[in-house]
Amino acid sequence: MLIKGEKKKVFGLKRKNALNRHHDDSFRKDQPVIHTGTNLSLMAQPVLIEDGIAYTEPLLCPREGIETEMKLKDQDRALPGSGVIGKIVYELPDIKIGSNPNSLETDGSVGNVMYNNYQFQEKEHLEDETLQFESRFECGNLKRATQIYPYEYDLQIRHDVSAKGHTQWYYFSVSNMRSDTKYRFNITNFYKPGSLFQHGMRPLMYSDRLAKEKGIGWHRVGEDVAYYQTQTQTIAGNDIEMLTITTYTGTNEQIRLRRGVCITCRVHPGETGSSFMLQGMIQYLTDDCLDAKILRDNFVFRIIPMLNPDGVIIGNHRTNLAGLDLNRQWLTPSRRLTASIWHAKAMLKQFIEERDVILYCDLHGHARKRNIFIYGCDSKQIGRGKVKNQGVEYCTPSLLLQERIFPRLLWKNSSVFSYSDCDFKVQRSKEGTGRIVVWREMHLINSFTMEASFAGSNFGRFAGIHFNPYILMVIHYKQVHKDHLSNKKKERRKYPLLSALDKKISG
């Protein structure tokens, strides 16, 4: 099977086990010498039919959300137990000018410099389903093929000779495919920011079998075709980094059962104290101590350290380069103007679908209040913590006050956290914030904004002292997260705490 990016007069070869198939009737026997001007040895050209069928091939209607879905699947490769194979099954060496200008390979005895330097995956046994790639034919340009999963491959296209870049055309052959099996090919090094693949264009394929059995030549194929940047970028072109922390061992089932925690930071550039809080958290979660290991063994932490790098770089206090407050854009984020929020929201939705996510927290700084505290979402308000029975809304005991457990545990385990300053009102002016959108749309009870005063504390051992990086970094999360581990004994501990909270609130 041959695959290429656009129709033009080219020749190709469906490669099987042998390096040369010159005695096959489908290959030309009167092959003229081809001068490549390089050390690249070409193989004989196949005879391809032109079916002459007059039919139309409609553009593909891109499925909504396909690019985000693909990007999140790519990110999941970093998770433990992902099953990534990572095996190079085809690789060509660098092409050198003038090494072997007359490089037609006709019988294996001439122009065979490539035999010693290139890597090719031979079929190891009859049941071996590894695909076999080839591009050493006229117009071919596949540089490397890496098997990621049994039916998924990353492909790297060769740069234009004597140039860096210009990787947009692709042409290669594949063999050893199985019928009724879907394969995914990821071409990883296209250089243009956009493509017609985003607007319904599909790749071209030539199948030896279809040509022989049905007289069908080149035709358009592909069900889920997407063109996207592997790294989310801002208006200025800065990357939005994401960090995943967990223990990278264990069975797939053990890892799947781990609960999730998502932390974001620096949506407001001027709130620098939030980065010190996050730094302390990351240093603790990656520490060698037993408590940190317990957290990594039981949770998957996804962390976006900087949602607004453009604003940070340019010295903004609150907005991005489009003049938008990103923490008011979560309801309807724009892929172009608020890309970090658009992708963070999509990532969090996918994260919640694949595992039990127990907490989302967005880290901030506060210019008017003292202490470190949390904004949450009251389960007694309409939209959360209620169900309907014959048209009458009432609060369910299993949800009542649960949003206050995490802040209460944090207060019990941290000398700089103030529970009395926490607020759980859902205000209309804040409905575009990450805290409220995640709580309302994704039904996550523990959806918080954590605030650290620009000044300092008015209670405890740090009363009357400015917060500094050390103080902001020593907020202890270990016991808080450990109390959320999924076992029945700890689940039973919630109810006395709920009773105590209820008395405190009503009293």
What's this, in brief?
This protein is α+β, with helices and mostly antiparallel strands. The chain has helices at residues 66-75, 113-117, 208-214, 252-256, 273-285, 290-298, 309-314, 339-354, 405-413, 434-441, 469-473, 478-482, 488-492, 494-506, and strands at 2-4, 87-91, 119-120, 132-134, 142-149, 152-157, 171-175, 184-187, 204-206, 219-220, 243-245, 259-265, 299-304, 357-366, 372-375, 386-389, 392-395, 447-453.
Task: Please supply descriptive tags for the structure shown above.
alpha+beta; Aminopeptidase; 6-stranded mixed β-sheet; 5-stranded antiparallel β-sheet; 14 helices
Spell out the blueprint of helices and strands.
Layout (H helix, E strand, L loop, with lengths): L1 E3 L61 H10 L11 E5 L21 H5 L1 E2 L11 E3 L7 E8 L2 E6 L13 E5 L8 E4 L16 E3 L1 H7 L4 E2 L22 E3 L6 H5 L2 E7 L7 H13 L4 H9 E6 L4 H6 L24 H16 L2 E10 L5 E4 L10 E4 L2 E4 L9 H9 L20 H8 L5 E7 L15 H5 L4 H5 L5 H5 L1 H13 L1
Parallel strand pairs: 6-8, 12-13, 12-14, 14-18
Antiparallel strand pairs: 1-7, 1-9, 2-3, 2-5, 4-7, 5-6, 9-10, 11-13, 15-18, 16-17
Characterization of the model:
The chain contains 14 helices and 18 strands. It has about 500 residues and is α+β, with helices and mostly antiparallel strands. The strands form 4 sheets. Strands 11-13-12-14-18-15 form a 6-stranded mixed β-sheet, sandwiched between helices. Strands 4-7-1-9-10 form a 5-stranded antiparallel β-sheet. A hairpin with a 2-residue loop joins β16 and β17. The chain is elongated.
Which superfamily, in CATH terms, is the homologous superfamily of the largest domain? Zn peptidases
Q: Would you identify the regions where 5 or more consecutive residues have pLDDT less than 50?
A: 7-25, 100-116, 382-395, 485-492
Strand content: 15-25%
Q: Categorize the overall geometry.
A: elongated
Tally of distinct domains: 2
In angstroms, what separates the terminal alpha carbons? 75 Å
Instruction: Quickly count the helices.
Output: 14
CATH domain topology of the largest domain = Aminopeptidase
| CATH architectural group of the largest domain | 3-Layer(aba) Sandwich
Query: Quick one: biggest sheet?
Result: 6 strands, mixed
Mean model confidence by pLDDT = 80
Rg over CA atoms, rounded to whole Å, is 29 Å
Helix content: 10-25%
Briefly, what CATH class of the largest domain?
Alpha Beta
Q: Numbering strands along the chain, what is their spatial order in the largest sheet?
A: 11-13-12-14-18-15
DSSP E strands, number? 18
GO molecular function: metallocarboxypeptidase activity; zinc ion binding
Family: Belongs to the peptidase M14 family.
GO biological process, one term: proteolysis
Cofactor: Zn(2+)
